[in-house]
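INTERNAL TRANSFER SHEET
From: sequence group
To: structure group
Subject: Patatin-like phospholipase/acyl hydrolase

Please process the attached sequence and return the structure record in the designated field. Keep the field labels unchanged so the import script can parse them.
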Amino acid sequence: MTKKIRILSLDGGGIRGIITCVILKYIEEQLQKLDHPTAKIGDYFDLVAGTSTGGILASVLLFPDNDGKAKYSVETALDLYAKHGDTIFNVSFWQHIINPFGLFSEKISQHGLEKQLNEVFGNLQLKDFIKPSLITSYDIFHRKAKFFTSHEAPSSLENFYVKDVCRATSAAPTYFEPAKIKSLYGQEFTLIDGGVYANNPALCAYAEARKIEFSKVLNDPSKKDFPTIADMVIVSVGTGEVLKPYTFRQFEKAGKVKWIQPLIDILLSANVETTDYHIRKMYETLGPRNAKNYHRLMPSLKNASPEMDDVSTKNIYELIQAGLTYVDQHRNELNDIAKKLIKHA
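Return from structure group:
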């Protein structure tokens, strides 16, 4: 029996990644009930893609233990955001005074983020991930997309420290300064958040999967090589819908400064929605059974803030509640996903 390729795609969204963790935690708990009591979700996907906060989460899920299996549960990732979010996204009082609203320099110092990434990943290398990855960033010097793919990393030209990969994918313009990193070969890159072109990286993950010889990479002859869309189960997880309306009157005579933040918001949302549209249309060309193998999990933010850096205790609580509400309302679909992941393991 040829088994389908299971793809997990994780959107960007800063601290809103907490919602993603809550949803994945439920799926992981179902895997533990149905398959193995110590199951970790990283072992149940064949390719994990992530942008920004989704890239950091992907890296946690693909972190190897001593046996080459997933070391961390989703709860570990949730703890990273809930307990250390205020360190990662800290803006000091003095920075507020000299740099109101991030108009004159980046809104957040990168030092807190880099410290946390170093503590979590240490000297782990991209090539050590347990499964193929696709983590997005954008090269502002060479002006092209940069993808971090662990299955291509055994070549030192494409191998990086994971902490640098995470720093690059999360270098959101106006929040963090660009990441200046080097591959283990010594090549230097100046990179920003992949969300500028793929805040939802699911379409990039599909394109990457098409060129992977999975039976060889995963050492599993039952896995399909160079899979088509009919050979894939795609689980794409969002960080909450942002549907803030903008009126004509607000922008009737707006200049560049007034447009900056709304434009970022609109571009990120539009990118996410367009990717979902394209993949949905591809699956609609398949038969009824295969057409159901695309799962887009996009919760409502409910009472949580749409801001990517709101790490107040209240907002973290509301993000968790938004995730739990989605789980409660979509329990059947999430249970179905867990069963598919086991079936094609």
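Handover comment: Residues 90-109 have pLDDT under 50 and may be disordered. The chain is about 40% helix and 10% strand.
Transfer complete.
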